[in-house]
Amino acid sequence: MSEARISVLVPGKIHPRVLERLRDRFDIVAVEKGERPQIDAETAKRIRGIAVAGSVNAAWMDALPNLEVIANFGVGYDGVDVGHAASKGIVVTNTPDVLNDEVADTAVGLLLNTVRQLPLAEKWLRDGRWVKEGSFPLSPFSLNGRHVGMYGLGRIGQEIAKRLEPFKVKISYHTRTRNADVAYDYFPTLLDMAKAVDTIIAIVPKTPQTHKVIDAEILAALGPEGVMINVGRGWSVDEEALIAALRDGTLGAAGLDVFYEEPHVPAALMELPNAVLLPHVASASVPTRNAMADLVSENIIQWFAKGTAVTPVPETPQKR
């Protein structure tokens, strides 16, 4: 079969640049998302690749007997059943590195907005209260002198830490294993770190081990001067515990770009003045999303042209 006749399935919406780049080389089969692909058996046999922004479960893979590659739009790929893909010899790819800087920049901006209450200060000005009532109240917190604990120190976590160094904050971290290449203080447990620091920045993936690990005990350990920032996954935070801690002053403030059940954000969380909330925009700039789209496309192009993916995930095959 010639490369021009290879069919690539696209479930639901994806960045238009992916479609633009792939259309010249492949037949694009666009379908709605669901439990199984709604295509006939003959079309299913022609599908050899998937380009997706979202999830691909085992049923989708089983319905496509000649599937070879799943190119995921995003650095996180928890929506793809990689274990099942690996068992079938299907390579899964993601988009690492191209979004590291954007997410790291957003994390630092979110931290500054949270400790200095900059969104509230802007609203004060826009609502005319500066003229009517005078200066905006002093922010209760400052970044100056803080001890930041990185929960997660992968590629994005390290970029966040590097950006924080010029702010003259102390930096520590907790990961499953110590990273011998960094000089920051290491804590073997998240609770140990929470007791030692006053700020946590979470940048961990969605795994069974990270489910709601930032709970009432962790938040209480941070204390009333504490700040919690999450630019990883909403999955890792117990939102009910967070709301209670912010409401009663157990925790000082929180800045969130991700939520447990996106795009649904608890009304109780939105009502809190000490919570800064963003709609999952950490990598959402035109240049970064274009780079992600290009990498999704290149993974599929390279797989069928050379038999190797550009950025395969470690759990699945690296080449044919």
What report would you give on this structure?
The protein is of the alpha/beta class. It starts with 6 loop residues before the first strand and ends in a 14-residue tail after the last helix. The radius of gyration is 22 Å and the shape is elongated. The chain is built from 13 helices and twelve strands. 38% of the residues are buried. It has two domains: 114 residues, Rossmann fold (3-Layer(aba) Sandwich); 178 residues, NAD(P)-binding Rossmann-like Domain (Rossmann fold), CATH 3.40.50. α1 packs parallel to α13 and α5 crosses α8. A seven-stranded parallel beta sheet has the order 8-7-6-9-10-11-12, with helices on both faces. It is 36% helix and 16% strand. The mean pLDDT is 96.
Short précis:
36% of the residues lie in helices and 16% in strands.
Radius of gyration (Å): 22 Å
Number of strands: 12
Largest sheet entry: 7 strands, parallel
Tally of discrete structural domains: 2
CATH domain topology of the largest domain:
Rossmann fold
The residue-averaged pLDDT reads 96
CATH architecture of the largest domain: 3-Layer(aba) Sandwich
- Number of helical segments with 4 or more residues: 13
Overall helicity: 25-40%
- Physical arrangement of strands within the biggest beta sheet: 8-7-6-9-10-11-12
Ends apart, CA distance between termini: 16 Å
Class computed from helices, strands and strand pairing: alpha/beta
User: What is the CATH C-level name of the largest domain?
Assistant: Alpha Beta
Shape: elongated
What is the CATH homology-level superfamily of the largest domain? NAD(P)-binding Rossmann-like Domain
Q: Which spans of ≥5 residues are poorly predicted at pLDDT below 50?
A: none
Note the run of SSEs as H and E.
Answer: EHEHEHEHEHHHEHEEHEHEHEHEH
